[in-house]
């Protein structure tokens, strides 16, 4: 891996007992990057909660190690880890954003329900609002879905990445954020797939970023299909381990009611989704 400043990961939790898969991804990724991991929880003034109530990376590493220390973590038997209970605001999103401003992480990791009930709806509303306002890449890990960090062993299996291309600008920024994450994980180069939906633009004429080593991407074009449906179908066809989508938040009044394309896909996919804010 090329020399660079330590990769910092923030994991936000509302202590949902079903949210362990997001923490497993945060720990597994931090283990590979040898960077810093923060687990954050938003609390109100006077809360009796203690950081000790938040999940502990050492407990998870010990569980993985009791099976067999995964090759992914063989060089790093521990994680530089900090648990934070943060208070500042009445709204949990504002509280977590305030914490993120202090930490300045490279990546935010949150859990996401695929078919939420009332609790899941509240949980996901906070996660989506946090991602829309954090202005850093956010990894949504589907609760009850299929991740790329093994829950049993902590191993990383990130073999194919699918990147929908709405425009050249969106594609380039999404690729850049995903490539930086892959580079930090120090894994074998994955297969990159680009999906272009609609009539506008020609992906073949897009100039891809100059990465070292350079990436080669397979390109699929679906001219007449709903974007969210096309992405989900292509993901299933390719068995992609990760979706990467650029987002500009809610671009229209319709988006406010039905959610952005990224939110629509994220609510249905079984695979992790990396949401990249487009500037």
What share of the residues lie within helices?
A: 25-40%
Mean pLDDT: 82
- Figure out the total of helices: 8
The appropriate CATH architecture of the largest domain is 3-Layer(aba) Sandwich
The 3D shape can be described as globular
Unreliable segments (pLDDT under 50, ≥5 consecutive)? 116-122, 250-259
By CATH, the superfamily of the largest domain comes out as HUPs
CATH-defined fold name of the largest domain: Rossmann fold
Q: Which strand-content bin applies to the residues?
A: 15-25%
* Assembly type: single chain
Care to count the β-strands? 10
Whole-number total of structural domains: 2
Task: Indicate the structural class.
Answer: alpha/beta
Q: Termini, distance in Å? A: 27 Å
Describe this structure in words.
The chain has 279 residues and is α/β, with parallel strands linked by helices. It has two domains: 136 residues, HUPs (Rossmann fold, 3-Layer(aba) Sandwich); 118 residues, Rossmann fold (3-Layer(aba) Sandwich). The chain is built from eight helices and ten strands. A ten-stranded mixed sheet has the order 3-2-1-4-5-10-9-6-7-8, sandwiched between helices.
């Amino acid at each position: 891996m090329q020399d660079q400043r330590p990769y910092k990961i923030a994991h936000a939790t509302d202590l949902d007992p079903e949210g362990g898969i997001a923490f497993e991804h945060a720990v597994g990724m931090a283990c590979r990057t040898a960077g810093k991991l923060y687990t954050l929880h938003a609390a109100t003034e006077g809360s009796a909660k203690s950081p000790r109530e938040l999940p502990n990376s050492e407990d998870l590493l010990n569980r993985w190690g009791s099976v067999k220390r995964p090759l992914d973590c063989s060089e790093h038997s521990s994680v530089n880890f900090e648990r934070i209970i943060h208070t500042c605001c009445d709204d949990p999103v504002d509280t977590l954003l305030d914490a993120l401003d202090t930490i300045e992480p490279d990546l935010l990791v949150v859990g996401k329900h695929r078919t939420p009930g009332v609790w899941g709806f509240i949980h996901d509303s906070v996660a989506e609002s946090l991602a829309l306002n954090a202005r850093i890449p956010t990894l949504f890990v589907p609760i009850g879905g299929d991740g790329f960090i093994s829950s049993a062993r902590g191993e990383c299996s990130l073999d194919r990445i699918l990147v929908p291309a709405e425009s050249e600008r969106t594609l380039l920024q999404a690729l850049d954020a995903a490539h930086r994450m892959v580079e930090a994980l120090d894994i074998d180069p994955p297969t990159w797939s680009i999906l272009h939906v609609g009539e506008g633009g020609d992906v073949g004429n897009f100039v891809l970023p100059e990465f070292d080593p350079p990436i080669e991407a397979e390109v699929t074009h679906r001219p007449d299909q709903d974007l969210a449906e096309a992405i989900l179908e292509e993901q299933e066809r390719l068995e992609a381990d990760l979706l990467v989508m650029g987002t500009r938040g809610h671009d229209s009044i319709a988006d406010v009611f039905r959610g952005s394309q990224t939110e629509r896909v994220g609510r249905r996919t079984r695979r992790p989704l990396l949401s990249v804010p487009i500037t």
